Amino acid sequence: MLGRGYVKLGATGNRAFTQEPRLHRSSKTLCCAALAIAFVAAPGCAPYTPLPLDRVPPLAPALTVLPETPLGLAQVTALALERDPDVRAVRARHGLADAQLLQSGILPNPMLNGAVLPLLSGIGTVPAWSIGISQDIKALVTYRAKRRAAEYAARQVYADVLWQEWQVAGQARQLAVDLIAGERSRPLLMEAFDLLQRRSTVLQQALAAGNATLVTAAPTQVALQAARASVQALDQRQLSLRHQLNALLGLTPDAVVPLATVIDLPPLDMTAIRASLDTLADRRPDLLALRLGYASQDATLRVAILSQFPDLVLGGAGSSDNSKVINGGPNVTVGLPIFDRNQGNIAIATATRAQLHAEYAARLATATGQVGATLAEMEQLQAQLTVVRRDLPAARLAAQRAAGAFGASNLDERSYVDLVTNRFAKEQEVMTMERALLDRQVALLTLIGAGLPAVDTLPGAVK
């Protein structure tokens, strides 16, 4: 009985021989070609590079990295845009947007397929083999629309990042303004506290000597407690503001940032701002980002519509059977759009575009309304501040006369304290309204982008 791999005796002799299954020369060539393609493609693969996380917080101790001269508002804003950890993290989205744009421009690779079928049994004489190559044609149909959608999406990311930079710059400017205004108001609060503390000391001595009553000392004690509370509240607020500013500048909480004593905000022309509201959408990064997002979604809708084109794969193939019969020629694979005509994706893309259209209209209305409302509030505050400043000299004069009359024993303790505290209350009212006006001004500057990076620094333009 013959074992596996043996054949019967040859016609010319009685010597048995073995015939192992072996690959045909063409099938060996096919295997070699496949290996060659693999080795050629391997050097183009990207290597893995580790990126370990930091274990130490990236905070600097301020004085070693900041200039010794006091910082103005423009310098504080520039440092915040340069050093804020959150801004640095947001800017990393640039790389992701660029990578996604790169991916959108890459066509799918052609597919190479092949097979080698060694002869195991039967009447054949050689192994069978096949080889073919194909390309997805539908990807070419939607290529331009997909590329356009990715370009708009990448520019939307850049606009979103710029808007985040505006927010950080506005926050830094607001914190610096509040800190400078707080430092300017502290001497007045301390003046009121020191005066009332001196009066309290005198009254306590008079009470101990029996020369004053609790009714006489009570107004001064109440005013002193209010003055102390005002100083403490200001100090607490100033410390909190400094911590927030240090965080924006990437500094440790205990770092000391030297600030100028002058609030040098850019000038405002309210009439010009109102006249330029029609062009606000061209100057606000958040509105531009929404426009770019809408344009990207519109291109995505075009992709969905073009994707109704049936799936089409073109290629060519060659093969040989076990009897050395070689065949070759083109092949086509066509999807039949019987059930799925991409109607679901088209409906989703259409609804998304309608949603973005409504969101842009809402944001545009909100942005315009915010600017108009801030302008109106500033005008109201300015009018009120004018009235309060007009009354301030009278309060100062009354306090001055009260001090003279009290020193000459022509005025009682309660009336003296009331007139003095009224003067300090008027002073604080002026400072409070001035700070409120500065806050509105900083907010308005952020809303219109005055002194901030302009949108013309973005790559490309909206078509």
TrEMBL record:
| Sample GO molecular function, one term | efflux transmembrane transporter activity
* Signal peptide coordinates: none
The record ties this protein, via InterPro entries, to:
MdtP/NodT-like (IPR010131), OMP_efflux (IPR003423)
Family annotation (Gene3D superfamilies): Outer membrane efflux proteins (OEP) (1.20.1600.10)
Q: Which family does it belong to?
A: Belongs to the outer membrane factor (OMF) (TC 1.B.17) family.
What this protein is called in its record is TolC family protein
Provenance organism: Sphingomonas populi
